[in-house]
Amino acid sequence: MGNTLQGASALVTGGGVGIGRAIAAGLVAEGARVALTYRSHAPEDSFLDELERVSGHRPLAIQLDATNEAEVESATAQVAAEFGAINILVNNVGGLVERSPIAGMSASLWDHVVAVNLDSLFLATRYALPLLAADGGRIINIASLAGRNGGHAGATAYATTKAGIFGFTRGLAKELGPTGTTVNAIAPGFIEATPFHDRFTSAASKAATIETIPVGRAGTPEDVASAATWLASPSASFVSGIVLDVNGAQYFG
Fold this sequence. Notes:
Blueprint: E1 9-12, H1 18-29, E2 33-38, H2 45-55, E3 60-63, H3 69-83, E4 88-91, H4 107-128, E5 138-142, H5 146-149, H6 156-176, E6 182-188, H7 195-200, H8 203-211, H9 221-232, E7 243-246
């Protein structure tokens, strides 16, 4: 275990699986205590056991609907009771929901995609802000390469919301700059071993996408976690308002 985050506390939304799980593990490996939220992908007991073994603290795992304001408010109150303050907020909740061209998309589906990717981001940030340590915190928003390039077929709504995360990140970085809190986004490219691609991407499409990645492989959740851990560290205190692309040179922003 490292010690770059020794004594820090973190909240990772959507931390039960995939990228969120890897980020939670990465933060713990650097000495942080972690609380995580989940909706349908509950963290395995063995995963929580391992994080407890590494850190000496049992992670706080809270089930909620991240688009429900009352549930988010209640969850952050639980985190406050457990940690008092937090140093790191990772907004990882998000999803495609379903592929649909705009011409055939219902307003309710559009609203759902916006809620999952933007309302959840706003709510977690809004209720976590009072918990951020007074000496400067870290907010890390997980966006997507789709926000850069529009995504694949049927992902326009998803891409729109992920691009919206870029604007939220930059605006909030300016808003919170005087407090010492940094705000950054990560835009992962093709990351295997995630529910997103397990559900929405065929084997043929995965293979074709990997062919376009210059480094010659798909990304892993740990690749994103490494970037998040650095942004959460004291060494990134002058880095704020950026979108960090993690895509193996597939796309340059």
